[in-house]
Design a protein that fits this description.
There is one protein chain. The protein is of the alpha/beta class and about 850 residues long. It has 19 helices and 41 strands. Helix content is about 20%, strand content about 25%. Strands 13, 14, 15, 16, 17, 20, 21, 22, 23 and 24 form a 10-stranded mixed sheet that branches. The longest helix is centred in the middle third of the chain and has 39 residues. The termini are far apart.
């Protein structure tokens, strides 16, 4: 039977004590309500959960922490606590106050609003395991005032505590007989009906928040309720604060709060009559008026903030579609009978991409599984060559032994003895991130390849969910990965919460490497790839997509005029005379200079500034990958510390000089050792060399250039690259002026740049014999078809002549569309002729079909 307020796919038993999931749960529902498995391998069902959150405002303090309670199968409450902290000092005070009054289990960290909160519940006897973990979805916090907010459907199952009766102020009243159904203490009380508990519940319907005030009558207090009251500050006590009746402490005293004033005394007589001093009446009226005004003000502010948030979300993302469902019995039958299907493209593991149907993953063994059934397909069927070294690379870093993908094989009949599979209905793209904490690796190795891999197959960009299998945490730039797909990416650690055996109905494995331009020196010293297949046009399309997702526009400079942007590093590799550098650049180029840093600015702000800059100046580092957002015609100036040769480390030079990027690149190197500050005392991964022997330290300190080396722990390279530098401004200005003759700035794109000619048309040859030893060969052709639509500065034609049977040929560069060859032309001989067109001396077109000419 389904309980009210539960997920549509969560079902409980009739007694309400256990909970399980139907097999048609969507992935989002499983993530929102995950199940954990006990160490002993048996399933632990999630207990009903109740959440109460209380918030402070201004100088008002609340003694009530945030409580979470989970009920075990025996019906008793096993609460644990989490705090909603505004400041560190408030957290210490609240922690100490709560520790003095309770003995509940506390967590050392405070959850953020809107995130999932995890609490550990003590041992539950009879389940066979020492602990279980439950994940509790947070209820949105009330802004401003500290009214308790609970889910009304869950509140109905709460029991009132004896400390919440109206006679709390008097210890004698609190120790009377068990409460009446109305919650009063003793004979007369407040009345048979008793005071009602009010709760505010908020729900979202179609993006509009609706609030409904619910009236909930507390249940009669029984001996069981007295036993529950041994847990101090029960949830019902927190709710009673709404009715202006603070709960009593263990010693019978009332806690401090806005409703408790020394001048207001509330007590119950023998007949239940209420006596109040006159000052208490005025205090109560004053508090009520102030509370009403503040409540109205806070409600209006919250409503306005909610509308603004909904509007912003509506601008950035489309409405999510319905959750995908899968026919579980049919999917299970298909897997058990048909097995797994695999079809791959690419000849080697470094350029291979594979498409799977019913590929499975064991979250316990952390292995992918290929089930062999009656209709299984495995192309290519490599046999043991699949392990030499792997089927494919999961990342775009070629042939790295930590990035390999493979699977184990099992017969489909083995499913009968394995955990029940959980089918993932989403189309999955499985890949590895190489280094999610480094911005260069994030863009070059992950985001660009993911962007074009998703567009390599129709519809994949709008349907796929990204699964990152390398085992890293989210990393510093995880929000950028979320921009690539409308569905939330998942990490390998999160798959364990979905099930022990996951099966993907459709999965693509691997990433396209065609957009990468640099290799990091694992096999040979780092440098550009031998065969770069990407141009600036593809990179600029990706940059335009990212700017749209980040809500960044190039329409007008953000500062109102052209400017030079200088990246300021705050931790290492510092520019020691940064202020002097900014002034010198401004004076030399008569432009405004601006600084930006990844540590102090949101990434969208960094992109906005880079996207409209005329020149970008930075020390060598990962932040220079943002040059891909620069407008055409801008200049990239890369600064290198002492003893670091710019020709040996060129990822950003290669990016800036790609055809179609249209950027100017300048490299400057510090040549004066007195202008550098070294840090030999730092840890080794930050350039320290104190761990080396004295002879090696002395050699490194005396070296004048880091030799070529492999990645990634060369101590001399790390020592030099983490130096701080005082820039020699005259030499820097001179270096920039060698490349930038005038005023730097964006320019419009010239579409003819980088466009190649087509084949020449109607190529013909005609031969004539002049005598026994002389002959003439005339070759003619028509211009390429696309030339008539282009404006090309220079057009040339290349003709190759080869005597049949010979291994050599004679090339000719011609300006006209016909030519008569007489030199070295033999009579009664067969010649092979090739012709092609060349634009601007460097853009070589294809050869036309070979001509066979007989003299």
């Amino acid at each position: 039977m389904r309980n009210r307020g539960e997920s549509p796919c969560a079902y409980s038993s009739p007694n309400g004590e256990t909970k399980s999931y139907s097999q048609e749960c969507s992935l989002e529902e499983r993530l929102a309500h995950p199940k954990e498995y006990k160490p002993c391998g048996q399933m632990v069902s999630q207990a009903p959960l109740v959440t109460v959150e209380l918030q402070r405002d201004g100088e008002l303090q609340t003694p009530y922490p945030t409580l979470f309670a989970a009920r075990d199968p025996r019906g008793t409450w096993a609460p644990s606590s989490r705090y909603t902290l505004q400041t560190l000092q408030e957290g210490r005070e609240l922690h100490q106050d709560f520790h003095n009054r309770t003995n509940l289990t506390r967590s050392k960290t405070a959850p953020l609003r809107g995130e999932t909160t995890t609490s550990r519940v003590p041992r539950i006897e009879g389940l066979g395991c020492s602990w279980r973990q439950t994940t509790i979805p947070r209820i949105p916090l009330t802004k401003g005032w500290f009214w308790p907010r609970v889910r009304a459907a869950e509140l109905a199952s709460l029991r009132t505590c004896t400390g919440c009766r109206a006679g709390l102020a008097s210890q004698a009243g609190a120790r009377r007989a068990p409460a009446s159904p109305g919650g009063g203490g003793g004979g007369g009380g407040v009345g048979a009906a008793g005071p009602a508990l009010h709760a505010w519940s908020s729900r979202a319907r179609g993006g509009v928040r609706r609030r409904q005030r619910r009236l909930i009558q507390p249940k009669p207090t029984t001996r069981r309720a007295h036993r529950d009251a041994s847990t101090p500050r029960s949830l019902a006590c927190g709710l009673q604060a709404f009715a202006d009746r603070p709960c009593a402490r263990r010693d019978g005293s009332s806690p401090p709060g806005p409703w408790h004033s020394p001048g207001a005394v509330l007590s119950l007589g023998p007949r239940g009559g209420i006596r109040m001093h006159l000052s208490a009446v005025f205090n109560a009226l004053l508090v009520s008026v102030l509370a009403a005004v503040l409540w109205k003000h806070v409600r209006l502010r919250e409503h306005a903030a909610a509308l603004e948030e909904e509007l912003a979300l509506g601008r950035q993302a489309p409405e999510p579609g319905p959750a995908l469902r899968i026919d579980y019995p049919r999917a299970l039958q298909t897997l058990m009978e048909g097995g797994t299907h695999m079809v791959c493209t690419g000849r080697t593991h470094t350029d291979r991409l594979c498409r799977f149907e019913w590929l499975c993953y064991s979250s316990e063994a952390e292995e992918f599984i290929f089930f062999h059934g009656n209709a299984s397909v495995m192309l290519p069927n490599l046999g043991s060559r699949r392990f030499q070294p792997a089927l494919l690379d999961l990342s775009t870093v070629e042939d790295h032994n930590t990035q390999y993908f493979n699977f184990v094989e099992l017969p489909a009949a083995a499913l009968r003895f394995m955990p029940k599979p959980v089918f993932v209905p989403d189309v999955a793209l499985l890949a590895n991130r190489f280094n999610p904490d480094n911005l260069m690796h994030v863009f070059h190795d992950d985001l660009l390849p993911l962007f074009y891999t998703l567009r390599q197959f129709p519809g994949l960009a709008h349907e796929a969910r990204l699964f990152f299998m390398e085992g890293w945490s989210e990393g510093a730039h995880f929000e950028l990965y979320k921009l690539l797909s409308p569905k939330q990416p998942l990490l390998r650690a999160q798959l364990k919460t979905l099930g022990r055996l996951l099966c993907f109905s459709h999965a693509f494995v691997g990433l396209s490497k065609v957009t990468t331009w640099y290799q990091y020196g694992f096999v040979q010293p780092q440098g550009p790839k031998a065969n770069v297949l990407v141009s600036g046009n593809e990179i600029r399309q990706f940059a335009r997509f990212m700017m749209e997702k980040l809500n960044v526009s190039r329409a007008g400079a953000p500062l109102g005029e052209d400017y030079i942007l200088v990246f300021s590093r705050t931790q290492n590799r510092l520019i020691l005379n940064e202020a002097e550098l900014l002034l010198a650049l401004a004076q030399e180029f008569q432009m405004k200079t601006v600084t930006v840093s990844l540590e102090d600015h949101a990434f969208a702000d960094v992109v906005r500034l880079v996207g409209n800059a005329s020149m970008l100046v930075s020390m060598h580092g990962a932040q220079l990958v943002t040059a891909l957002f620069l407008p055409r015609g801008a200049t990239v100036v890369e600064l290198f510390p002492y003893a670091v040769n710019p020709d040996h480390y060129t990822p950003y030079k290669t990016l800036a000089t790609l055809p179609g990027m249209d950027l100017q690149y300048v490299a400057w190197r510090n040549m004066m050792p007195e202008n550098t500050v070294t840090h030999p005392e730092r840890p080794w991964d930050q350039g320290g060399i104190a761990h080396l022997d004295r002879a090696e330290q002395a050699r490194i300190l005396q070296s004048r250039e880091v030799p070529r080396h492999l990645c990634c722990r060369n101590p001399e390279w790390l020592f030099r690259i983490y130096q701080d530098t005082k820039v020699d401004i005259p030499s820097l200005i001179q270096t920039i002026r060698r490349v930038v003759k005038g005023r730097p700035g964006p320019r419009k794109q010239k579409w003819t740049v980088g466009l190649y000619p087509g084949k020449v048309r109607d190529a013909r040859c005609q031969a004539s014999v002049q005598g026994a030893s002389e002959a003439r060969l005339t070759v003619s052709w028509q211009i390429p078809w696309n030339l008539k639509y282009l404006k090309v500065r220079e057009v040339k034609y290349e003709v190759w002549l080869q005597e049949q049977g010979e291994n050599t040929y004679v090339p000719y560069i011609l300006a006209l569309q016909n030519h008569t060859f007489t030199e070295n032309i033999k009579p009664f001989t067969t010649y092979l002729v090739w012709v092609r067109c060349i634009f601007n001396k460097i853009l070589l077109g294809p050869f036309a079909d070979v001509l066979v000419c007989n003299t």
